[in-house]
Design brief:
The protein is 45% helix and 26% strand. By secondary structure, it is α+β, with helices and mostly antiparallel strands. It has 2 domains: 109 residues, Sandwich (Jelly Rolls); 77 residues, Winged helix-like DNA-binding domain superfamily/Winged helix DNA-binding domain (Arc Repressor Mutant, subunit A). A 4-stranded antiparallel beta sheet has the order 1-8-3-6. A hairpin with a 2-residue loop joins strand 11 and strand 12. Helix 5 runs antiparallel to helix 8. The longest helix is centred in the middle third of the chain and has 27 residues. 22% of the residues are buried. It holds the Pfam family HTH_Crp_2.
């Protein structure tokens, strides 16, 4: 019932917005401290990253969005309800070709008055919070090996045959940026998984041969 309600509500938002087909690696939106947020973005398909650049030029990836839903409502709502403003500039970037809908903040806030919409927004914000907190936990408590295994299981998807794969855009460099480790370390750990016949490469696609084994390792 919750899933059906979510799909219905998202369709209502899509109908209120403007549809864009965004190419891979294109910048969708930048949220800057103290600058007014004028639009809300929704993902229909594809993968989007939330990231920032440190003063040293390092890319920090906070989250990947791969399910249909809202992309930039957390900074909007924290400003609106809490008056909270951080000093970060964050980017939403299409990591694959994406279908995005954009609607005005005024339109979004008007819909927010509807009880079912408000419930969905609360679920979305809480899910984003859990994602960030788990990333903080993982970076502080577990080994890089365990974090990599968890990353693969969280971001793998099933293709039309039912096999688990990791999207081509998740290169060793991309994964290393997310886990904050060098890509050479990622390559070494991936090689271990290949030797154990848990994963395999088919062209550029990473295939998970034994998802149960990977789940046990993490």
């Amino acid at each position: 019932m919750i899933r059906i309600s979510k799909e219905k509500i998202l369709q209502e938002f899509y109908a209120l917005g403007t549809r864009f087909e965004v190419p891979k690696n294109a910048l969708i939106n930048t949220t800057v401290c103290q600058e007014k947020i004028t639009h809300v973005y929704l993902l229909e398909s594809g993968i989007v990253s939330l990231s920032s650049i440190t003063p040293q030029g390092q890319t920090i990836i906070y989250q990947y969005f791969s399910q249909p839903g809202f992309l930039n409502i957390v900074p909007l709502l924290t400003r609106f309800y809490l008056g909270y403003e951080n000093d970060m500039t964050v980017d939403l970037t299409a990591k694959t070709a994406c279908v995005i809908y954009r609607l005005t903040v005024e339109t979004f806030m008007a819909k927010l008055a509807e009880p079912l919409v408000k419930d969905l927004i609360i679920q979305t914000v809480l899910a984003d919070y859990v994602t960030v907190m788990e990333k903080i936990r993982d970076s502080g408590e577990d080994s890089t090996k365990v974090n990599l295994y968890r990353f693969i299981t969280q971001h793998a998807s099933q293709d039309e045959t039912g096999a688990y794969i990791l999207d081509d855009f998740f290169t060793y460099t991309e994964i290393g940026n997310y886990l904050q480790v060098h890509e050479v370390t990622i390559a070494r750990l991936m090689s271990e998984l290949k030797r154990e016949n848990i994963i395999a490469k088919q062209g550029k696609t990473l295939c998970i041969i034994d998802m149960n084994a990977l789940e046990r390792l993490k």
